[in-house]
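This part of the workshop introduces the protein records we will be handling. A record pairs a protein's sequence with a compact description of its fold. As an example, a complete record with its sequence and its structure tokens follows.

_____
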Amino acid sequence: MMAPTVMSDKKQLKIAVIIKRFISTGGAEKYALEVTRRLALLHEVHVFAQEWAFSGKENITFHKIPRVLHKPTWLNHLLFSHLTSKAVGDGFDIVHSHEKVTRFDVPS
């Protein structure tokens, strides 16, 4: 991993990362894990997930999003989106999602 660059004149961001499973197996999961770890070197990072397995040294705050239903899958997706939206709120500079969510903001 590359050494972090110094950000003396830049603001530390508060970043929310949304993913159902924050684990080291699976392509999307590995990608999310690596992106999050690198962001956490310079920023305050919070992960919103239904499950996680993380033993890294980076300072990452985890927030449990309950898995209310296992089946049908589409309903779990919808509930995850709703519960995550409520949990994240408006207190983050960036919300980075690896999931399909119903609420987002794209500046013009």
About this structure: The chain has two helices and six strands.
